[in-house]
Amino acid sequence: MAAPKVNIALVDTTSKISREELQRVANALQIQVSRDFAPVWDKDATVHVFDYMTDIPLGFWPISIVSAIDVQGVNGYHWIDDEGNPFAKVEYRDDFWPLTVSHELLEMLVNPYVNKTKLVKGLDDTGQEVEFLVEVADPVEDNDFGYRIDGVLLSNFYYPAFFDLTKREGVKYDHLGWLKEPRKLLNGGYISWKNASGEWWQAFMVENKLIIRKLGDSTPLTTADRTMIWGWTAVVTVSLIALTFLIKLFKRNGNRIR
Fold first, then answer.
1. Coil, helix or strand at residue 231
2. Distance between the two ends of the chain, CA-based, in angstroms?
3. Which of 82, 103, 228, 242 is buried deepest, with most CB atoms within 10 A?
């Protein structure tokens, strides 16, 4: 049986994107979701383009491209509004905004209320089970691991087998096959989880080195933190600043944004 389709509304609020370009991106997203994503995750959508936010009918999940995003340090996020309806925002960044739209769209389809977790053995050597946030693009999010449909750069995403405990021959862990084992990260990727004590942790990959840090109720990074991480890579700075802020929101509200 075909997966039920969610109506997605794509809107440019910046006046920097032509209607033709926005429609071209929507068409690529439509192919990605229905051809590549739905058969794997059983989540499908119809992507519509609207000129204004006020044009969006009730029941649609909006993704708005904005000039400046209202959460510091992120390029995009998905969340729920005061009435519990999923939405996403993406900051306009020249060539890369379509990849971020793709990222948020796919994550929103699998985890629309930002509360879905997967209980499985953690990344450390303790053998303890932890609750991983199910965010299908985060571990493989870097631009270098995306792919193009009709010239539009879109996000890679992991498969359900990503949470397997052991490697299995012939099994794909992400759409493009970059991941060779389950629960691994590509450079620039990250993953977040809560342990049995209710503490939040994050792992991220920098130059093939796995960095794990406790987040808990942490506040945004200090200047020293930012300087150290910028020394590794600018991409990870964005991810880490985002996650410290986002996990704080998740603990407070029981939900999470990217």
1. helix
2. 30
3. 103
pLDDT in tens, 22-69: 999 999 999 999 999 999 999 999 999 999 999 999 999 999 999 999
Measured in degrees and rounded to the nearest 5, phi and psi for residue 136 equal -70, -15
Q: Which of 225, 219, 223, 224 is nearest to 249 (CA)?
A: 219
Q: What is the mean pLDDT of the chain?
A: 86
**Tokens 């995009």 sit on residue:** 76
For 168, phi and psi rounded to 5 degrees? -125, 135
Listed in sequence order, the residues at least 6 apart from 44 whose beta carbon sits closer than 8 Å to its beta carbon are 2, 3, 4, 5, 6, 33, 34, 37, 38, 109
Beta bridge partners of 120: 130
Q: What angle do CA 77, 8, 177 make, to 5 degrees?
A: 65
Average pLDDT over residues 4-15: 96
- Quick one: angle between helices 223-232 and 234-253, nearest 10? 130
Q: What is the pTM of this model?
A: 0.84
- DSSP class of residue 254? S
Instruction: Classify residue 101 by burial, with Cβ atoms within 10 Å: 0-12, 13-18, 19+.
Output: buried
